[in-house]
Each structure stands twice: as C-alpha cells, then as structure tokens.
Amino acid sequence: MIQLDNLVLLLIVFIGGGIGAVLRWSISTAVLKKTNHIFPIGTFIINISGSFLIGVISTLVLYNNYQLLNLFLITGLLGGYTTFSTYELETAQLFKKNKSAAIIYWLGSVAAGIIAACIGVFSAGGFA
Prior knowledge:
Keywords: Cell inner membrane, Cell membrane, Ion channel, Ion transport, Membrane, Metal-binding, Sodium, Transmembrane, Transmembrane helix, Transport
Organism: Methanomassiliicoccus intestinalis (strain Issoire-Mx1)
Distance between the termini: 39 Å
Structural class: mainly alpha
Strand content: under 5%
Main location: membrane
Helix content: over 70%
Order of helices and strands: HHHHH
InterPro entries: FluC
Mean pLDDT: 86
GO molecular function: fluoride channel activity; metal ion binding
Largest sheet: none
C-alpha cells in the first residue's frame, strides 16, 4: 500500500508530467501547421527549449533545495515535455567532471538512440 506522503509525491510528478505532455503536443501541433514538414522543427524546438529550461530550473531549484518544486518542474513537467533535456543536463554535468566520459556518453547516447529507434521502427513494421 502506498503511504500518503508517497501518494502526494506521485501526484506532483503526475500532474507536472501531464502538463508537460500537453505543452509538448500543443507546441508540436502549432509548429507543424506552420512549417514544411521537411525538418522536425517542433521536436527540435521542444528539445532545445527543454534543455535550456532544465539548466535554468535545476540551477535555481536544486541549489535552493526545493524538493517538491524539483519533482513538479524537472521530473514531472520537463519529463513530460522532453526527456532530451535530462540527457543534456547529465551530459553537461558529466563534462564538468570527466570530458572523455561525457563525449562517450554524448555520442553513445545519440548513436544508440538512433539505432534503437530504427530497430523499433523496423520491428514494428513487421506487425503493421
């Protein structure tokens, strides 16, 4: 059974995630209507803005130890908005500590992500 404290934390993340997902959909839809569909500019805008926002918010929220705000904004809202921003933040933090590891993580994540997406597309294509 989930304790009340844990339920509140789950709800905070859930609400933030829902808002982030709706923002992502809204922005993607609006941008898609105004572009030529050749380049996924909506996703690009979301991922880059999410990376910027997670950098700003993590600096302001984490250093002030606002746990609930961190859960709502970073884990929830930006998690629903884009998971790419978390990857960008982790790469930036790793780069400060170990440049070689950061480069391996950066390139490896991109390459593995593209390969996994391609495998997923081709695998699902067999069932579609």
